[in-house]
Backbone:
């Protein structure tokens, strides 16, 4: 099994979290907290030189000065590895910022510049701003689309990836806007990183469509699972677990289209509202996280989410400030993050329990998925050969009686309670707003 299939990720957006003036070395204070959560992998949002939010790259080879130095990052990755935590970073290869050195050179020297051919649709136009027109990412003039078919562009980007591996010892890359990257570019990158490092995790950011177009044997190991993300929160809000049950069966059941892929699961990230602000009932935080941890996929915690941190997307230039807040590392580790709900301490402890159960159970990390029972407010499914997961958002406990492989089952999430199912019937009580994980012994 690859390391990432056994991973529990923690996701930090450094330009937001460290926005109060701290640098990357300060993040070392978070590592003991991550270990207590059972985290063994860290996804860092954009850390290389940029003008504003990090996704408008100006230099792929150096760490953003707002976050520290190249040496700071190298030392931080080494500290992560010493704690048993792998590190992946954002690879923003579809576009660059207008302050990217190559784009500035192209504007300065015109069509005689070699860099002129690095950008899609770059043409002279005296009626346009700065005398040029060019393709962008989704119409944003500050994000200039790279020509990934150009050998010089591709060599520059692959050279940057080599430098990240050689100087920083990273373990993988999240491909920003992977749905905008050409299949041949992703395939070439896959071949390139495989030649450099075994089990290098390549994960694509994709929202819509059939994820197999980007996640397959020759391209990404997996993609962001936005379909399941939507199913988790909306099935809770609508008291309709049939929605998430349909999604999981479609993706991972007997005929599941994503079986065998290393999909990246999440209930919040740097682009969407905080889960605690998305859910109508704060008690659903516990079952939403349980679902993410026990369903197929690689779970991820977004910084502050373990404390039930709230945050709604705004509008305009400051739309993302509330979901990418500055938090001192010492405050993050202690739960002194606002605004949060009263359940924050219990939620953090629950997530640590979910993580421990997942990482100690190969059925959950690597096993198959099969639906057992679904109702508006609960879902029971089987993972692997002999693990039953039951999740209920109902207000009252519920007794269930399901067919299983005969034997004795232990609820590893709830005090190792034992249940006799030697007649092939497993009878147990689903707790209100909680989960059961019953493993055959």
Residues:
């Amino acid at each position: 099994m690859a390391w990432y299939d056994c991973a529990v990720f923690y996701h930090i957006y450094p330009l937001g979290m460290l926005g109060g003036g701290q640098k990357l070395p300060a993040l070392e204070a978070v590592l003991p907290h991550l270990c207590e959560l059972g985290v063994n992998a860290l996804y860092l949002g954009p850390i290389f030189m940029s003008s504003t939010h990090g996704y408008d790259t100006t230099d792929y080879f150096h760490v953003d000065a707002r976050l520290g130095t190249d040496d700071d990052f190298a030392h931080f990755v080494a500290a992560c590895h010493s704690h048993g935590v792998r590190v992946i970073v954002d690879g923003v290869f579809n576009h660059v910022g207008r302050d990217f050195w190559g784009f500035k050179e192209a504007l300065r020297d015109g069509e005689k510049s070699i860099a002129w051919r690095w950008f899609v649709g770059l043409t002279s136009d005296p009626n346009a701003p700065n005398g040029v027109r060019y393709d962008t990412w989704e119409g944003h003039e500050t994000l200039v689309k790279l020509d990934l078919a150009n050998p010089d562009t591709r060599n520059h980007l692959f050279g940057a990836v080599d430098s990240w591996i050689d100087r920083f010892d990273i373990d993988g890359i999240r491909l920003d806007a992977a749905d905008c990257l050409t299949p041949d570019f992703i395939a070439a990158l896959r071949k390139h990183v495989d030649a450099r490092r075994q089990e290098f995790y390549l994960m694509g950011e994709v929202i819509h469509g059939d994820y197999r177009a980007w996640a397959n044997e020759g391209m990404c190991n997996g993609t962001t699972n936005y379909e399941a993300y939507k199913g988790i929160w909306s099935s809770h809000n609508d008291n309709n677990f049939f929605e998430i049950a349909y999604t999981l069966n479609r993706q991972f059941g007997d005929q599941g289209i994503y079986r065998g892929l290393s999909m990246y699961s999440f209930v919040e990230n740097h682009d969407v509202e905080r889960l605690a602000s998305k859910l109508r009932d704060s008690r659903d935080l516990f079952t939403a996280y349980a679902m993410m941890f026990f369903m197929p996929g690689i779970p991820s915690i977004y910084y502050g989410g373990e404390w039930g941190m709230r945050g709604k997307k705004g509008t305009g230039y400051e739309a993302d400030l509330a979901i990418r807040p500055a938090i001192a590392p010492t405050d993050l580790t202690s739960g002194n993050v606002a605004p949060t709900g009263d359940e924050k301490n219990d939620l953090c402890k629950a997530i640590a329990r979910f993580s421990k159960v997942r990482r100690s159970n190969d059925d959950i990390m690597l096993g198959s998925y099969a639906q057992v029972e679904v109702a508006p407010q609960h879902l029971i499914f089987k993972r692997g050969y002999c693990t039953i997961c039951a999740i209920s958002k109902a207000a009252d406990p519920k007794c269930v009686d399901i067919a299983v492989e005969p034997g004795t089952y232990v609820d590893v999430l709830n005090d190792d309670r034992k249940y006799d199912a030697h007649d092939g019937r497993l009878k147990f009580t689903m707790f209100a707003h909680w989960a059961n994980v019953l493993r055959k012994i």
